[in-house]
Structure formats: structure tokens, C-alpha cells
Amino acid sequence: MEELTARMLADLPRRGQRAKRESYVRGLMVGGRRKSLQPMALRLGVGHRGLQQFLRNST
User: What gap in Å lies between CA 32 and CA 35, rounded to an integer?
Assistant: First the structure.
């Protein structure tokens, strides 16, 4: 998992972007039926607004 996310994060210049992308990828891969942002964020213990902003603003 760490190797995969490291390759995916290499092109993001800011640490905050890399952290949000890593959280999003982990959220997609962890258990749970719902893959929408709020349930994923709850499972990960992160704020859903940060993930939402990442998805909305990232290229």
C-alpha cells in the first residue's frame, strides 16, 4: 500500500495534497459498503471537507 501511494503521490508538490490523496486512496480500499466521502472520512478518522476539497480542486 505504501509503495502504491508513494508512486501516486510523487506528482503532487504540496504535502497537504499528498496527505489528502493518500487518505482518499485508503478510504477506497478499506472495508465498508459506502464509498462516498462522509462514510469514508468517518472510517479513516479525517474530515470529509478536506477530502471533498481535494477532489474538487485537484487535477
Answer: 7
C-alpha cell at 50: 478536506
CA distance linking residue 11 with residue 45, whole number of Å:
25
Domain boundaries, the chain: 2-57
Predicted pLDDT at 59: 62
Let me know how long the chain is.
59
What does the pLDDT look like over 9-35, one tens digit per residue? 777 777 777 778 778 888 888 877 777
- The amino acid present at 58, given as its one-letter code, is S
Q: Give the whole-angstrom CA distance, residue 49 versus residue 33.
A: 20
